[in-house]
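We give this protein:

***
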Amino acid sequence: MRTRNATSARNGRRTASLAAIGLAAAALLTACSSSSSSSSTTTTTAPGGTLAGNNAAFLAADLKAPGGSLNASGSTFVQPFFSAAFYKYTGLNQALQVNYQGVGSGAGITAFQSGTVAFAASDVPMGASDLAKMPADSGPVVQIPDILGGVAVAYNVPGVSTRIKLDGPTLAGIFDGSITTWNASQITALNPGVTLPAHAITPEVRADSSGTTYIFTDYLTSANPTAWTLGASKTIAWPSTAEQTPKNSGVASSILSTPYSIGYVELSYAIQNKMNYAAVKNSAGVYAVPSPTTVAADADQKTSVTSTDFSIVNQAGATSYPIAGYSWSILLQKQTSATTGAQVVKVLDWTTHTGGGQDLAAGLHYVALPPAVQNQNRTQLLTVTGPDGKALLSK
């Protein structure tokens, strides 16, 4: 397999692609005052902005806090949303900065385990093996959904203007290396009347430990329980034909700069960078195009999710887009500092509720959390305490 650094390989075309992407967040909302594409860090530094909705006055009054900063890291799936949400929050909180580094879900969990961040984000919650690596004195971990999004199957096939249709078995064959050309019979059978080139396919995948990879391979596992043999995981032993690049922005850049490539990226990256992406056959036999509406339709089929039962891929329904999932924020239930802990629970409570950060979701091509999930989040956050055992969030 080939691993590429998104900022060094194929310098001419890659540099142009990276500039076009701009980590998607900057183009998604001009509210992001600063972001670094080299470190993928979002820092909310400028005050300003107002909340919309009936809860605006309450939230603005309730959440005012002294200036300071919180460090967090993890998923690049959620980073465009966090970029906008944390900037907005900064304007309501006397310049409290939330410095979020998009390093991938696995690296975010590692940082959380080591205690170097106030909270982490991952598109797959910490499981038993991850929790076992927490320090013995850290206590329980709280994990809450922070946004809902889709994973687009983006491609770069010169000369093909018709949207390509793909299904689970065909995607499995492309990414396990058994389908190698664009005019392979499995692909042409799904696209009658479309002239596809006799050119080798370059699968584009994540090089880092990635929750987006987990959602994508979870779908392939669900749609092809016997044919897909590489498993569902944040890290996959990809075939040698695959080009590996870290982060959603890196994969998007690599697809844009590599003719005849195909890969998976969070939907907001695909839309903002005007990428072509496939219609994917869902469990009802309908080819669904990813959008906030079709992602919401998929999530509506499973209204209750927990950190141990979180998969929503391949749900029923004619309008469901089958490759979708939640991002999860992760924090300690017993905070070591009452001051920092209060800032963490308040920013996450605001971010995960209507009247706060969720109001930004649709404009960023995400889906706001369902009301039941929002209520579940508040119940969880009310259990978070300071070192004295007192709750840090008021009912």
